[in-house]
Design the sequence.
């Protein structure tokens, strides 16, 4: 696995923590994280993450920040 994908997976784990703290009450965040996971699973881990993965991850993180606020 490429280091950049490792970073993506770490960021997804942080979002999982946000979901756990929020009691999974934010369905939009849960769906966004699920979408990123599916993209990562289908992605070529020997290359850099696609723009779609990056955009989806950033969207999920933005939703996660509003959850924490």
Sequence:
């Amino acid at each position: 696995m490429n280091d950049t994908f490792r970073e993506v997976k770490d960021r997804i784990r942080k979002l999982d923590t946000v979901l756990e703290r929020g009691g999974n009450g934010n369905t939009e965040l849960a769906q966004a994280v699920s979408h990123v996971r599916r993209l990562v699973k289908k992605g070529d881990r020997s290359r850099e993450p696609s723009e779609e993965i990056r955009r989806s991850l950033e969207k999920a993180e933005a939703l996660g920040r509003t959850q924490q606020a």
